[in-house]
Design brief:
17 helices, BirA Bifunctional Protein, domain 2, ten-stranded mixed sheet, Rossmann fold, D-tyrosyl-trna(Tyr) Deacylase, Chain: A, elongated, RNA-binding, seven-stranded mixed sheet
RNA sequence: GCCUCGGUGGCCUAGCCCGGUAGGGCAUCACCUUGGUAAGGUGGUGGUCGCGGGUUCAAAUCCCGCCCGAGGCUCCA
């Protein structure tokens, strides 16, 4: 029964690999020079030879790999002896023989074949490509009878543990997902389906894409890489106001705003560890003497900063905040979609260092509340998003009441994922998920308890007794990506409209809050005076001075989602009352200018303000789209 | 990366199956119109039909190759 033993190969389609033999590890090691080697556009085969392998297996392995290379349209391989793939290794002499046989077979098959020396401890750097076939692990069995090929997602699968899915209710009761009655919780059902079975209901284009273009908020930029967007003035205003709101919220909460670099040395020792877990996702920049990667979160910069910080337990919890413009993730081409997912995106990222679990829990609750406040400001209420909460079973058993208290705060049943063991660097994590018109779920706010990175980055504080301690680290994005917030607002508006409602952005985010329309050219001057009076109160007001019909101008104001529209003619000048067309209430109400101003100021109270991002007169505005 | 669909003035789109000198709408420009709450009228400017090759007397249309985009798959600590 030799069937269980085999040749194990981790096959990685790589942009490049660099390796440097450091020292001999076994006596059977081959002779080689201690010089660095770099190979580009290559399929790297990390190979371990197990106990009962014979040389037939080598030929068979190469045959399988040959098929694969055809699919990848690559013809260059590097055979890289890598013992760590197995705990049942063959003797070095046998292994070397098998490896040499592989090399020979590959050359015979016409592959451009490289091989790293056997028996050496080697330092290496690898950049793996981002497509699904890039990472494969294969096991070639020694037993000829057993021809099954096992192909699996190598890196992820190793870390992925069994998890089970439940619905947890505010009263603390827990039901397996399949037993829960979703009648009253359709979006939660969609989230569960999306997370567990990954089914899709719809095949159409996400509606927010058309809206983001038509409203001249934001658009694709063909001159860049996919997933890098251009923001028109109105969109820039909306985005910038949301950024401001999130930042204000975090600063009020006590966070210290910092700024850190967008790119980091690929070979920095503290980072390489972390990076190893996300090998395929970076933009790589070549500088004169080093390779840099663009950050995909604010963690690096903040952790490197905190590593160098002198911290006492008296200063905990310590909150550090950064708005990353941008974070970069080189998502696979097919994964990018409008404002749902980009390759360059803006993400607020707030870390809190806590001394112990007790402090952590208190902090976690505070942040949980802040997150729903932020979403509420965007016009996203509890009914508009769903909570997912994930943890290791062990953590849950010890902290059950804490988990339930979060669900109670949320006030609705939540999706719960329980892992048999701690699978990641966090022990507890939650997200607010928005479900869009295609029934796809996207995470907005999120927070997690990280128990590893303080060690990885050696971040410490001094406790009461003068000892260095590693804190717990909370990672929170209070809003999620800002782009994604806009996506959620637009998708929600579309849904509202489909259900017979009026689509609009919250008043404090509306690029135009009030539009004044003179009934004819004769009243432009009077209209201007009114505009100026409104503007003085920090209200974004504009003037449609184009020589179009009144109907047409009203129509366009509606299409621009302007919430308050005022028409100015002789009657208004005589009476002093303004006919205010309220988009949301869908009626025209007569009021004094002061009344309107007060009403608006009250509605946008406490929210950030920025002035009109375009010329005040519509006749002076270019058309950015269409 | 794979699959599917697509690429025609700034935007939307007809024409493609069945080859015969590219049509409409919006926007833009000019003129008329100066209005009372969701599209006033007339006229004009603007296109080597994504790129390259092939078939043909003739290609937006048929064939081959490539590029770009979108969606799906997959992925999403």
């Amino acid at each position: 029964m030799g069937g269980l033993n085999s040749l194990r190969i981790l096959q990685l389609h790589s942009d490049y690999i660099e390796y440097l033999p450091v020292q001999k590890e076994v006596s059977a090691a081959e002779e080689t020079e201690k010089t660095a080697r770099r190979i580009e556009e290559v399929v790297v085969l990390f190979t371990a030879v197990e106990e009962e392998d014979n040389e037939v297996v080598a030929t068979r392995a190469i045959k399988e790999i040959e098929n694969f290379l055809e699919k990848l349209k690559v013809n260059r391989i590097l055979i890289y002896p890598y013992a760590h793939l197995s705990n049942n290794l063959a003797k070095p002499a046998v292994a070397l023989k098998v490896i040499r046989r592989m090399e020979e077979a590959a050359k015979t098959a016409g592959m451009e074949t490289f091989r790293a020396p056997f028996g050496w401890n080697k330092k290496f750097t690898i950049s793996i490509k981002g497509h699904p076939l890039a990472e494969q692990s294969r096991t070639v069995l020694a037993d000829v009878e057993n021809e099954e090929e096992k192909v699996s997602e190598a890196l992820q699968a190793e870390a992925k543990l069994e998890s089970s899915w439940y619905i947890i209710q505010p009263d603390g009761s827990v039901v397996p997902v399949e037993k829960f009655d979703f009648t009253e919780h359709k979006d939660l059902e969609r989230l569960a389906k999306y997370e567990i079975s990954k089914t899709r209901a719809s095949q159409e284009k996400p509606p927010h894409i058309k809206l983001m273009q038509r409203l001249e908020l934001v658009d694709y930029e063909p001159g860049s890489d996919p997933g890098n967007l251009r923001w028109y003035p109105k969109g820039r205003l909306v985005k910038s106001l949301i950024e401001q709101l999130v930042t204000d919220t975090m600063v009020n909460y006590g966070a210290m705003e910092v700024e850190t670099p967008v790119m980091y040395d690929l070979n920095h020792p503290s980072l390489s560890d972390y990076l190893d877990r996300f090998p395929a996702r970076q933009y790589i920049i070549k500088s004169e003497d080093k390779d840099l990667f663009l950050r995909f979160a604010a963690c690096f910069g903040q952790f490197l900063m905190l590593h160098d910080t002198q911290l006492s337990y008296r200063q905990l919890p310590l909150r550090v905040y950064e708005l990353t413009r941008y974070s970069f993730r080189r998502e696979k081409s097919g994964e990018i979609a409008g404002l749902r997912r980009q390759r360059a995106f803006t993400m607020p990222d707030c870390h809190a260092l806590c001394a112990d679990l007790r402090q952590t829990k208190r902090e976690f609750i505070t942040r949980f509340k802040l997150c729903s406040e932020v979403l509420d400001s965007l016009g996203l209420e509890k009914k508009d998003y769903e909570l997912a909460i994930r943890f290791a079973e062990d953590f849950y058993n010890k902290n059950r009441n804490f988990v339930i208290s979060l669900v109670r705060l949320f006030g609705k049943p939540a999706l719960m994922e329980m892992f048999e063991e701690k699978a990641f660097y966090w022990v507890l994590k939650w997200e607010f998920n928005f479900i869009d018109n295609q029934e796809k779920a996207s995470a907005l706010s999120t927070d997690q308890i990280d128990v590893e990175n303080a060690y990885r980055y050696d971040i410490t504080y001094t406790d009461e007794t003068g000892q260095k301690q590693h804190p717990l680290i909370l990672h929170c994005s209070p809003s999620g990506g800002i782009e994604r917030c806009v996506y959620a607002m637009l998708e929600k508006s579309y849904r509202d409209q489909k259900e017979g409602g009026v689509p609009f952005l919250p008043l404090w985010l509306s690029p135009t809050q009030v539009r004044v329309i003179p009934v004819s050219d004769k009243f432009t001057k009077d209209a201007e005076n009114i505009v100026e009076e409104i503007r003085r109160h920090e209200i974004r007001v504009d003037l449609d001075d184009r020589s179009l019909t009144l109907q047409k101008k009203v129509r366009e104001a509606e299409r621009d989602w302007v919430i308050y529209v005022i028409v100015i003619g002789q009657k208004e000048i005589d009476s002093g009352f303004l006919p205010v067309r309220d988009r949301v209430a869908r009626k025209i109400k007569k009021m004094k200018l002061r009344e309107l101003v007060d009403k608006i100021l009250k509605e946008v109270e406490d929210k950030p303000f920025k002035p009109l991002p375009l010329p005040q007169k519509l006749s002076q505005r270019p058309q950015f789209y269409g």
